[in-house]
Amino acid sequence: MHFEFQVEGGNFSKAGTASSQLKKILKQLNVDARDIKRVVVALYEAEVNVVAHAYNGVIIIDIDTEKIMIQIEDEGPGIQNIDLAMQQGFSTASELVREMGFGAGMGLPNIKNNTDKLTVTSEVGKGTKVHMLINFSI
Amino acid sequence: MEHNNFHHALKIREDLCIGCSHCMNVCPTEAIRVRNGKAILYGDRCVDCGECFRVCPVSAIIIDHDDFNHIFDYKYRIALVPAIFTGQFPEDVSPQQMFSVLLDLGFTHVYEVENGTALLQEAMNEYADKPGISKPLISSFCPAIVRLIQVKFPALVDNILLLKPPLDISALHIREEMRRKGISDKEAGIFYITPCAAKIAAIKDPVGEDQSPISGVINMDVLFNKVYRKVKTRNNQSCSLPVYTDLPATARCWALTNGEAPLAKGRTLAIDEINNVIDFLEKLEDDEINDVDFVELRACDESCAGGVLTVSNRFLTAERLRNHKTNTPDPPSSDHPDGFRHIRENHAEIRKHINIEEVKPRPIMKLDDNIAEAMRKMEKVNRIMQLLPRVDCGVCGAPSCQALARDIALNEAQLHDCVFIQKILEQKGELSLEESIKIMQKIWGFGKTNKYRDLKGL
Question: pTM here?
Answer without folding.
Answer: 0.89
